[in-house]
Write a structure and sequence with these properties.
The chain has 385 residues and is α/β, with parallel strands linked by helices. It is built from 14 helices and 14 strands. Strand 10 and strand 11 form a beta hairpin. Helix 4 packs parallel to helix 5, helix 6 packs parallel to helix 7 and helix 12 packs parallel to helix 14. The termini are far apart.
Length: 385
Amino acid sequence: MSWSERIAQGLQSRRQADAYRRRLAIIGGNGPRLQYRGRQYLNFSSNDYLGLARNPDIIAAWAEGASAHGVGSGGSGHVAGYSEAHRDLEQRLAGWLGYERALLFNAGYAANQGLIAALVAKGDMVLADKLSHASLLEAAVLSPGQLRRFHHNDAGSLRQLTRAECTGNRLAITEGIFSMDGDSAPLAALQRGIADAGGWLLVDDAHGFGVVGEQGRGSAWQQGCHPELLVVTFGKAAGVAGAAVLCAEPVAEYLLQYARHLIYSTAMPPAQVCAIGASLDAIIRGDGLRAQLGRNITRFRAGAAGLGYRLAPSASAIQPLLVGENGRALELTESLRERGCWLTAIRPPTVPVGGARLRITLTAAHQSADIDCLLEALADVRRPA
C-alpha cells in the first residue's frame, strides 16, 4: 500500500465511523462566550475552569514580561533559554506544593512524555489506569518497559498487577481528575498499593491543579497524598499554558540530564513564565472562584437530574453526558449549537468504543443564567419534534 493509499484509507475509516475530527476557527474559545461565523454561543467546552485566561492582572504580567524579556526565550534551557524568571517560578512552585524541585515544560504532553521516557528502562513495569491520558499511555507504550493496565480507579487491581514478576522498577501512573470522565482517582490507596511493591506513583493533575485542595494545590494535596512524581499544567485552571514536574532533588537533576523534551526544546518564553506567576497569585486567593465553580456544578447536576440523560458520576468541572453512538453524539452537538450552546462531541479513540459523549465543562465565569440556558437547551432537544 502506497503512502497516498494508506492516508486515503485512514481518512475514509474515520469518516465511516463518524469519528472524523475537524478544527473550527472561533473567537473567544477561552471565555464563557465565543463567536463562530458571526454568531455568539455559550461556551461549555473550555478548560479555563477559574476564568483566568482573561484576567487583567495575568494579561498585564505577560505584557510586562514581554516588555522586559522579549517575546521568546532564545533557546533551550540548557543553552541560553533559562532565566531568573524560570528559576524563581520553579522554586515558588516547589515550595508551595511541598516538593524539593520543580521543572518547567512547554506542555503537559511534553512533561509526561519526557518524564516517562527518561525514567523507564528495560525490565521496568509501568502500571497505568486504563483511562489515563493519551500522553501517559503513549509514553509507556513507546518506553522499553512493560505496560500493564489496571481497572479504572481500582487500587485492588493495581495491587494484583504488582504481583507479576518484574526485574526492574515499578511505576504506577494515573490522573488526579480524569479528563474525559471527570472523576477523581483514589490517590492515597494507589500510592499505598505501589509503595508496598517498592514502586513510585506518577500523578498527572492537569484537571485538579488550581481547582481542588487548599488554595487550589490540587488532588494529591486534597487527599493527603505525596506522589513521588507530580505533573501540573497551566493551560486549564491557570488559564495560561505549559506544565511543571514536581519531584525530589536527585530526580530533577536526573531529568535535566536525560529528559529529551526538556533538553532539546526551546524553553518557555519568560513572558509566559511571568503570566503563570500572576496566575498562581490568582489561584492562591481564588477561594471565591472555586466556590462559584462549585455552585455552577451543583446547579447543573441538579437541573440535569430529571432530563433523562445519562451523566457520569462526576463532582468536577468536567460533566460528561454519555451518549454511546458517535452519530448520535454529533447530532446532539449540532442541535445544541442551533440553540446557542457550544459543546463538543468526544468520540473514539479518545474514549472507548461505544463511549461517545458530550464533554460539558463548567467554569467560574459562567453565570447562573448560562447554566439554565444549557439545561433548557438539553431539555428542548429531548422533547418530541
